[in-house]
Amino acid sequence: MPSPRTLPTCASILMVSLMVLSGCAALENKETHSTATAESGIQTPLAAPRTEPRTPAPNPPPSVERKLPIGDVSLGIDNRGDLGQIIVDSTGRTLYVFSQDAPNEPTCYGECADTWLPLLADADPAGGVGIDVASARTVPRRDGREQVTYRGHPLYRYAGDQTDRDANGQGLDMFGGEWHVLTKFGEPLA
């Protein structure tokens, strides 16, 4: 076994050897590329630039909630600073409306509904202070479930909102229309 004094020396020799081998391999690769270039008469870059478009990750990523909650729903009003007082669900999550929806007719299905989660209920929703309970209803979706509406606007949650204070979907243009929060008066915030 080597003495403790020779261990740093052995490690140093090993590191120098690895650096020399790496340098030789790089030099060999350069010579091979240069020879091939000289024989063909065509100069090519070592690394061709990427020309095909990159596929960006979905923005936002689809929801991880594959089975949407259905049950009792209550609507409320929350003050969100720059947005003012807006309609939220009973957990404080921001609710949105889609400009392509006709009154009481949701149009967001499939991939759209993976990003914009329909607010589902098994009965007409309750309402907190400031909510017109008579304007809170449900309408049938094509998939047989009941979606909550307020003043005729089908309501959605946004998969890009991570907390109950987020409103990252306000003003987004996705799936052929715009998405907006609802003011306390039940109107889309432009």
Q: What do these coordinates show?
A:
This protein is α+β, with helices and mostly antiparallel strands and 190 residues long. It has a domain at 74-188. 21% of the residues lie in helices and 22% in strands. It has helices at 6-40, 111-115, and strands at 74-79, 85-89, 96-98, 116-118, 126-127, 136-140, 146-150, 153-154, 156-158, 173-174, 177-181. The strands form 4 sheets. The chain has a 3-stranded mixed beta sheet, with no helix packed on it. A hairpin with a 2-residue loop joins β10 (173-174) and β11. The longest helix has 35 residues, at 6-40. The protein is globular and about 35 Å long. Residues 18-22, 24-38 and 43-58 have low confidence and may be disordered.
Features:
2 helices, alpha+beta, three-stranded mixed sheet, three-stranded antiparallel sheet, Lipoprotein, Lipoprotein_repeat, 21% helix, signal, 190 residues
Note the topology.
Blueprint: H1 6-40, E1 74-79, E2 85-89, E3 96-98, H2 111-115, E4 116-118, E5 126-127, E6 136-140, E7 146-150, E8 153-154, E9 156-158, E10 173-174, E11 177-181
Parallel strand pairs: 1-5
Antiparallel strand pairs: 1-2, 3-11, 4-9, 6-7, 7-8, 10-11
The helix content is 10-25%
Per the principal axes of the C-alpha atoms, what is the gross shape?
globular
Please list the strands of the largest sheet in the order they lie side by side. 2-1-5
End-to-end span in angstroms?
A: 77 Å
Can you give the mean pLDDT?
A: 77
How would you concisely characterize the structure shown here?
This protein is 21% helix and 22% strand. It has 190 residues and is an alpha+beta fold. Residues 1-25 form the signal peptide.
